[in-house]
Design goal:
By secondary structure, the chain is of the alpha/beta class. The protein has one domain: Metallo-dependent phosphatases (Purple Acid Phosphatase, chain A, domain 2, 4-Layer Sandwich). It has 6 helices and 14 strands. The strands form 3 sheets. The protein has a 6-stranded mixed sheet. A 6-stranded mixed sheet has the order 6-7-8-9-13-12. The longest helix is centred in the first third of the chain and has 13 residues. The chain is globular, with a radius of gyration of 17 Å. The N and C termini lie far apart (45 Å).
């Protein structure tokens, strides 16, 4: 029997101020203008990467938050723009819906239009666990999206005998559903590994286990960024270190995307939505 999970409301273990909702949505959508996401391109240099995977392009979409604040048209536009980047891999790093189960299948069908040479992969975020993680998993898998629930998958760009690049995915930290040990079980120590972890504070456990690179979301880049003050949301005991963009901890690199959607407030300020394109390079 699956154990019932409850959120860690104040993230004392992780220390992160989250963007979480427990109140109802408004009766009608706000008249907020949603510009196209900014497309960011970043080279990630990995010492253990094989020549076979040098140049592999991962396009990341995260924190879609389909809801009254983030209409389906915004998500469809993000999918279209992601496909134009011709990715080798698409990584979806959680929070597909906000509050209501009615948004699950529409957003899954929209994400089913994503195309990538080696596949589309997904993990779940804290809002997904709040709504219905099993139904979201079923909906995504119905669209041929591989959902990594504390699991891993080998990316082999050439002959099966070539060195592997492993995608590792964990469930949400806030809900206590993550199990990195299980996700990495039986993986060759010498092979490079990319971890999909919704909460960027997962970098601590990733660094402890020698993960090469982490892809995260969760913070929305702050969603509202004010002059002098900086980000309103998403700070942690590390300050703004893991709120957005590239960083590293003890040799493990991380990229935190600002994501697509909105919660709490029907707008972004000084913090546009983002589609991140990460090109893996052999150092």
């Amino acid at each position: 029997m699956a154990r019932r999970l409850r959120p860690r409301r104040f993230l004392k273990r992780q220390g992160l101020i989250t963007l979480a909702l427990s109140s109802p949505e408004p009766a009608s959508p706000p008249p907020a203008f949603s510009p196209d996401p900014e497309i960011t391109e970043t080279d990630i240099w990995l010492r253990r990467l094989s020549p076979t995977h040098d140049g592999l392009r991962i396009v990341q979409l995260t924190d879609l938050h389909h809801s009254l604040f983030t209409p389906l048209e915004d998500i469809q536009r993000a999918v279209h723009l992601a496909n134009l980047l011709r990715p080798d891999v698409v990584a979806l790093t959680g929070d597909y819906v906000t509050l209501s189960r009615s948004y699950i299948w529409p957003v899954a069908r929209a994400l089913g239009k994503l195309r990538a040479r080696l596949g589309v992969f997904a993990i779940l975020g804290n809002h997904d666990f709040q709504v219905d993680p099993d139904e979201i998993t079923r909906a995504l898998r119905s669209q041929h999206i591989r959902v990594l629930r504390n699991a891993h998958y080998a990316l082999r760009a050439g002959h099966p005998a070539h060195a592997g690049l492993w995608l590792v995915g964990v469930d949400d930290l806030w809900w206590g559903a993550d199990d990195l040990a299980a996700a990495m079980r039986s993986l060759p120590a010498r092979d490079p590994k990319v971890l999909l972890c919704h909460n960027p504070l997962g970098i601590r456990m990733a660094a402890a286990r020698g993960i090469d690179f982490v892809l995260s979301g969760h913070t929305h880049g702050g969603q509202v960024r004010l002059p002098v003050v900086g980000s309103v949301y998403g700070r942690s005991k590390f300050g703004e270190r893991f709120v957005e963009g590239w960083n590293q901890l003890d040799g493990t690199q991380i990229y935190v995307s600002r994501g697509i959607g909105k919660v709490l407030l029907p707008l972004r300020f000084g913090c546009p939505p983002e589609i991140s394109c990460l090109r893996l390079r052999r150092a």
